[in-house]
Amino acid sequence: MLRRINGILEPSLKHIQFKNSQWICVSSTQFKAKSFSTSPPKPEVQVKKNVSKAMKAYLERAREHDEFMKQQTLEFQIGKRHLANMMGENPDTFTQEDVDHAIKYLFPSGLFEKKARPFMRPPEEVFPQRKAAEFDETGRPYHFLFYTGRPNFYKLMHDIVDHINDAYKFEDTMIRKGIKPDPNLALELSGYQWSDKASLEKELVEGIGDKDYEAFIATMERLCDLPYSYRSKDFIFKYRKPLMSHEQTYQAPRPQYDADGRAFITTYECLRKRARGHVTIRAPGTGKITINNEEITYFKDVQPREQMSKDAL
Amino acid sequence: YPSYYIKPVHKKEVQDELAKSGELQKLVHMPTRAALNDQTCSPAQDDLINLFINYIMRDGLKVLARDLVERAFENIKRIQLEKYHKCASEEDKQKIELNPRVIFHQAVENCKPILNLTPIKRGGVRYQVPVPITPKRSQFLSMKWLIAAAKEKDSKVRFHHQLALELIDAANNRGRVVKRKQDLHRQCEANRAYAHYRWS
């Protein structure tokens, strides 16, 4: 049927300009009325109907998702309180950590894959985030970069460039005054790495290509290299993840005291390759070394003994 | 280990240097590999000697390799002491080096070649072209030649004894290994007309 419509339309196609390039499958009666007129048919009415249908479906989906999330959050809160009751804890002061402990206790699992084990977490972490309605009923998008296809990502790039330009302007004013940048205030970037592609995608709720991610890293590095980048510290550190869990400060173990009043500490499970050992150090010490109730000659070979010696053996 | 794990700095002096220059701060947060069994923080550690022991080692027999090198050093000490006590004047006594490690370092230094010959094919003919080599490569060649020379011996002579003799000779700039290096340099000098074949 569409082909027959095409056949009728061809002579008048030159006069017709459609707003969108989509072919509209309209009933043949309407076209019979218009196909032989020279004036361009008014497509606004038809276009508006179709956009509003798509708009309707879109809004419907966004609303459903919102409602679903609300429902899930409510269920999660109620479930948390039930769980606290079950465990005999105060429901008001029941944190996510306590929830995890409770689930581990109630549903012990021996599965090797930690992600496959049972868990109970707020719905924002469990269900993939979706964007809210991106345009209103008239079809006009809210975000000024909507037509790039990835507004959040490009907005982020623009923000970085804004910060760079700010830093340049500030540097100019400082040079005019004759003040040099303070080296103590410079950014401390060691111990952190840029958030990886997956977490960036999650934050932006958009897919990012590899080249775009590299461009993001390059631009951020450019910002960090500037002398006055410390002014944008908060912005930069939003996208920095700690390298090792050095946020947990190492707490040195407390020494225990034996019958003679001498302090000693035992470290369990010291590993090297397949070897496992427990080491006890006593203070004040005599300098004696005992390994499995033997002297240092427990090591038949000379090489392991060298660590202890000041001179070459 | 995953590729981003860095090698540890096992020497106290190197760590202090890094702390001064400020590099240490960057390395503190990097995931690190475990130190090897022959890397200690003892001040008596010598990385070059450990490398030499590894080159001597065959089939993973580290104990044997270490034993050979220890005996070679002992032999060096004995030979040098003999020379020392046979000396008449004080001046000659001062000149004799008694520390086997110092002799070893000197020997390796004296045997390092600067250029090497590589075969390059031009017009169907393979020319031996003199080519510069990196310091690490030259150090490797020096140690390899020392070991090879120590192996070329009479079957009744022990390897550690021959190695001791080779090291003493090389430290005094004579002997087979230094001759091999000088022959190589002479060949490079002779072939210097082909040097431009490196870039063609």
Q: What secondary-structure arrangement, pairings included, does this model have?
A:
The complex is a heterodimer of chains A (313) and B (200).
Chain A: H1 2-9, H2 28-34, H3 44-87, H4 96-106, H5 123-126, H6 151-177, E1 192-194, H7 197-204, H8 210-225, H9 233-237, E2 240-242, E3 256-257, E4 263-272, E5 275-283
Antiparallel strand pairs in A: 1-2, 3-4, 4-5
Chain B: H1 12-21, H2 24-28, H3 47-56, H4 62-86, H5 90-95, H6 100-110, E1 115-122, E2 125-132, H7 135-151, H8 159-171, H9 176-190
Antiparallel strand pairs in B: 1-2
Helix pairs in contact in B: 4-8, 6-8, 7-8, 7-9
Protein name (chain A): 28S ribosomal protein S9, mitochondrial
Keywords (chain A): Ribonucleoprotein, Ribosomal protein
InterPro entries (chain B): Ribosomal_uS7 (IPR000235), Ribosomal_uS7_dom (IPR023798), Ribosomal_uS7_dom_sf (IPR036823)
Task: Give a brief rundown of this model.
Chain A: This is 28S ribosomal protein S9, mitochondrial. Chain A: It comes from Asbolus verrucosus. Chain A has helices spanning 2-9, 28-34, 44-87, 96-106, 123-126, 151-177, 197-204, 210-225, 233-237, and strands at 192-194, 240-242, 256-257, 263-272, 275-283.
What is the count of DSSP helices of chain A, taking H or I runs of 4+ residues?
9
Shape of chain A: flat
CATH level-1 class of the largest domain in chain B: Mainly Alpha
Main β-sheet description of chain A: 3 strands, antiparallel
Give the ordered list of helices and strands of chain B.
Answer: HHHHHHEEHHH
What name goes with the CATH superfamily of the largest domain in chain B? Ribosomal protein S7/S5
Structural domains of chain A: how many: 4
CATH topology of the largest domain in chain B: Ribosomal Protein S7
Radius of gyration of chain A: 34 Å
Helix/sheet category of chain B: mainly alpha
Number of domains of chain B: 2
Average pLDDT of chain A, rounded to a whole number, is 81
Report the strand count of chain A. Answer: 5
Detail the poorly predicted runs of chain A: 5-34, 43-48
Which protein chains are joined by the largest interface, and how many residues does each one contribute?
A: A-B, 18 and 19 residues
**Beta-strand proportion of chain B:** 5-15%
